[in-house]
Amino acid sequence: MEFRKVFFLIVLLTITSIQIQGQIHFGIKGGINVSNFHVKADKDIDDILFYLNQTNFHMGFLTEIQINNKFSIQPELLFSAKGAIHKACVESVRINPIPGYMAPSKDISKATYSIYYIELPIYFKTMFEAGKSGDFTIGIGPYVSYGIRGRNKGDAIVDTSHPTEINWDRDLFVGGDFYNAFLKHFDVGLSGFVGYELDMGIFTTISYDMGLYNIKKNNDNIKLNNRTFSVSIGYKF
């Protein structure tokens, strides 16, 4: 099934759920993302695919449709920045200017992958009373996101025995004269959160997104999945 169909199916589910009789609350939220890629690759290239966490942000709106005192459905519409930092140090042997001498060398590079998504998670949420002024909350559900912008910026030192520095700034979704598009626009996955919500409407959550879709454009023995840890604070009206 095409992921565009999944996206519109989830939108339809959201619209249908609003028909459920019950109290409806609207809200805003924002916070910090700590994101990375989960990588699957052939063994011979796995050692050079070393990604570090990247810190980003998210913000947006939510609607909570109350089913009863314990359960609700909570669709959200977010602008969410994800990505990772890639570092590589590849050792090689190159011909040295001194005749007959092979010189060891390294190529060292660092690049940031910044991806900006419009994201639609739909949480099935339950609440437990925790004190006189608030509730402990747990939510889980699917999400669909569409990448609206993606940049790959980096620099590298090629051949440390005779260093040459190069820099680049590329669009991850659109290819250029000397490179192909790197990522797909769509992503689909599961998301879950735990949090605490005050009766006055202020809430905070800790969430984790697990991408299930290979977002890499060309399936060349490398698969990338988004992984994102988030801390949010918000207010429901």
List the defining traits of the structure above.
237 residues; mainly beta; eight-stranded antiparallel β-barrel; 8% helix
Low-pLDDT residue spans = 92-105
Strand-pairing-aware structural class: mainly beta
Beta strand count: 10
Annotation field: number of helices: 2
Give a quick account of the main beta sheet: strands, pairing sense, barrel closure.
Answer: 8 strands, antiparallel, barrel
Q: Distance between termini?
A: 37 Å
Q: What average pLDDT do the residues reach? A: 82
Q: Give the % helix.
A: under 10%
Biggest sheet: strands side by side, in what order?
A: 1-3-4-5-6-8-9-10
Order of helices and strands, N to C?
Answer: HEHEEEEEEEEE
Q: Measured on Cα atoms, how large is the radius of gyration?
A: 22 Å
The percent range for strand residues is over 45%
- Outline, from the CA principal axes? elongated
